[in-house]
Write a structure and sequence with these properties.
- This protein has 145 residues and is mainly β.
- The protein contains one helix and 15 strands; from the N terminus they run αβββββββββββββββ.
- The longest helix is centred in the first third of the chain and has 5 residues.
- The radius of gyration is 14 Å and the shape is globular.
- The relative contact order is 0.13.
């Protein structure tokens, strides 16, 4: 599965728009140059900087780092995208797209942040506090916000 990051790997990770995660909080890391195919489930925070293909399920936070390439169906609490994602994302709490991140697929989230320079190509459905869903974007392509 995904190898656990050693303390030295976690301490040397670059800082940047990583959402709620602090480098010392990352439970596992799929580093640059690594490739993984399969089903990933985890607790806490996981960062992907390499290539991943498959399915991802968690009640935690997923960080897709700059340079990462993920082709997956993703169901998590929170996701921060700085790399490239092809697939659908369901995030209970929220989704953050940071430049130069790219998302090609549909998303369903409690909240959405799209930084200028990020690319989103798909449909978005927002979930209100009452659990009701409402479509956003009408299937158009957005480039930044």
């Amino acid at each position: 599965m995904v190898p656990a990051a050693s303390n030295s790997e976690v301490k040397h990770m670059n800082s940047g728009p990583q959402g709620p995660a602090r480098p010392g909080d990352v439970n596992a890391l799929l580093g640059r140059g690594s490739e993984f195919e399969g089903k990933l489930t985890f607790e806490g925070i996981v960062r992907i900087d390499g290539k991943f293909t498959g399915e991802i399920f968690s009640d935690g936070t997923l960080i897709i780092g700059e340079g990462a390439r993920v082709k997956a169906e993703i169901t998590v609490d929170t996701v921060v995208v700085q790399g490239e994602v092809v697939g659908n994302i369901r995030a209970k709490t929220g989704i953050e797209l940071h430049a130069p991140g790219k998302l090609r697929g549909n998303m369903q989230a409690g909240s959405l942040v799209v930084q200028k320079g990020a690319i989103f190509d798909g449909n978005c459905v927002m979930e209100g506090r009452d659990g009701a869903t409402r479509p956003v974007g009408g299937g158009t392509t957005a480039s930044g916000a």
